[in-house]
Amino acid sequence: MTTALATSPHSIDDLADLVDGVRAAVAVHAGWAETAQLVAEQLRAHLPSPDVLTAEQRLGSPDDYVAHTLHVEPDGSFSIIAVVWRPGQTTRIHDHVTWCAFGVIQGVEHEDLFDAELNPIGHNENHVGDVDGFAPPGDIHRVHNTGETTAISIHVYGTDLTRIGSSARRYYN
């Protein structure tokens, strides 16, 4: 995965309500699972359009999916990331270092879910407007774009990803 800092002129204005909503959700100081759901509610209410990225950023990369940092809270309590997936691009099976909420803003993302023994336990087809949240444990999954067009999703993680480099805690074979 490639990571880049978003420079869209729309980012600040388009994200202001989302950032404020996530701040309020995080300020509740709930457990991770509840925080993920509170943040998902805010993401659902304030899901930005693909225009939160520049036209060039929305193209993605032929090499791998690309993550664009849209916002990092100054105290490190959360990050907002846009992930751009070209057709066929996929993550490895992984889990996370913290809670996450995500919403699809373009295309369709396929998600495969696994139990702790890596047995498949389900899958989701996430379409534009679909939003969900999750927290460890029980967050083992793989995401991929099985469609024929580029997919884009917004992810909110409960940490400063620019500091730690990745939302993944572990990768599985």
TrEMBL record:
<keyword id="KW-0408">Iron</keyword>
<keyword id="KW-0479">Metal-binding</keyword>
<dbReference type="GO" id="GO:0051213">
    <property type="term" value="F:dioxygenase activity"/>
</dbReference>
<keyword id="KW-0223">Dioxygenase</keyword>
<protein>
    <submittedName>
        <fullName>Cysteine dioxygenase family protein</fullName>
    </submittedName>
</protein>
<dbReference type="InterPro" id="IPR014710">
    <property type="entry name" value="RmlC-like_jellyroll"/>
</dbReference>
<dbReference type="InterPro" id="IPR011051">
    <property type="entry name" value="RmlC_Cupin_sf"/>
</dbReference>
<keyword id="KW-0560">Oxidoreductase</keyword>
<comment type="similarity">
    <text>Belongs to the cysteine dioxygenase family.</text>
</comment>
<dbReference type="Pfam" id="PF05995">
    <property type="entry name" value="CDO_I"/>
</dbReference>
<dbReference type="InterPro" id="IPR010300">
    <property type="entry name" value="CDO_1"/>
</dbReference>
